[in-house]
Amino acid sequence: MDRFVTFLRRQLDIDLELLRVARQDAETGAAHACLITPIRGFRECELKSRLLSTHHHCGTGGGPCDELGESYPPEDERGCPTRALLGLPYADRPGYIARWRP
To answer: InterPro entries per the record (predicted)?
Structure first.
C-alpha cells in the first residue's frame, strides 16, 4: 500500500513545484501558459493532500472506508476507492501502474 501513497505524494510535490514556478513567472511577468491559476492549483493540491491524509489507513482496518466496508483488501495498494480516484489524474505519469485505476 505504501508504494501507491508514495507515488501520489510525489505527484502532488511535482504539481506544487510547477505551480510555484507558474506563480513566480506571473509575478515577474514571464509569459508561460498555465491552464489554472496558481491559487486554484495550490488549493487543489491541498485538497488532495488532505483527502490522502484522511484515507491514509484505509485498507489496513483502521481507515474510514474500512468502517464502511468500502476498502480494498490489504494486499491492494490503493486502499480504498477514494485513494484510487486521487491517483487517476496522474495515470499518464511515469510510475503509475495500470492496476491502480479505479
So the answer is: DUF6221 (IPR046193)
Q: Please list the pLDDT of the chain residue by residue as tens digits (102 residues).
A: 588 889 988 998 998 898 888 888 878 877 666 666 778 888 999 999 999 999 999 999 999 999 999 999 988 999 999 999 999 999 999 999 999 999
43-51 contacts at long range (C-beta below 8 A, 24 or more positions apart): 44/15, 45/12, 45/15, 45/16, 45/19, 48/8, 48/12, 48/86, 49/9, 49/12, 51/82, 51/86
Name 13's Cβ contacts closer than 8 Å, sequence gap at least 6: none
- Give the residue numbers spanning the domain of 9: 2-100
